[in-house]
Amino acid sequence: ASSNTEILSISDPATLASVLTVGVKNTIGDCRVKVTYEPEYVPAVPPPVPDIPAEHLAAMIKATVKVEVLDDNIAYLKIQHIIGEEMAQKVGPLLLEYIWDKVLPTSAMILDFCSAISGELSGIPYIVSYYTDAEPLIHIDSVYDRPSDITTELWSMPTLLGKRYGTSKPLIILTSKNTLGVAEDVAYCLK
């Protein structure tokens, strides 16, 4: 890529974006990558979490999470949406009761992100921290947002609601071509 100086002479931003898209796709082998030129781009601001009773929020979350204990004491946790920090704080105790307390005593876990297509960036440290030690803190990721020119540093959390699953039990992470966005990042960070 550094030796291909021909692209530097492309003056049309849309054409340059198209050429870069082809180059990046061929280089990294990910057909989902796309470079765009959007001079009027305004980043979307996520809507605030509505004031819904915690029980209703927990029911919504349970609809996007499947939990069971398989033979040989193996937990199976299928997550379709990764909740963010604000939601986790609202429904944390209910999540512990309905989901986490069931999988915590197992001897291994299958974490299924095959259908995870949505999530919130602030949820990454929550999930990853349950599979790390409390100390030392671990740098999980750095996420750069070009429009705002802000880099967000994500670190493991020293304290969590409930106990950690730990680092000594086997953890199997399932992904597919349908694993997108935040779930993709969580899978990569846990790897």
Task: Describe this protein's structure.
Helix 2 (54-64) packs across helix 3 (85-103). The mean pLDDT is 85. 18% of the residues are buried. It contains five helices and eight strands, in the order ααβββαββαβββα. It is of the alpha/beta class. The chain has two domains: 1-45, no CATH class; 54-190, 2-enoyl-CoA Hydratase, Chain A, domain 1, CATH 3.90.226. The longest helix has 19 residues, at 85-103. It has a four-stranded mixed beta sheet with strand order 1-2-4-8. It has helices at residues 13-28, 54-64, 85-103, 124-129, 181-190; strands spanning 65-70, 74-79, 81-82, 108-112, 118-119, 139-145, 150-155, 171-174.
Total DSSP helices = 5
Number of strands: 8
Gyration radius, rounded: 20 Å
Total domain units: 2
Please give the largest β-sheet: 4 strands, mixed
CATH topology of the largest domain, what is it called? 2-enoyl-CoA Hydratase, Chain A, domain 1
Calculate the terminal CA-CA distance, rounded to whole Å.
28 Å
GO molecular function: retinol binding; serine-type peptidase activity
InterPro entries: ClpP/crotonase-like_dom_sf, Tail-specific_protease
Organism: Misgurnus anguillicaudatus (Oriental weatherloach)
Protein name: Interphotoreceptor retinoid-binding protein 2
Summary of the model, kept short:
The chain is an alpha/beta fold. It contains 5 helices and 8 strands.
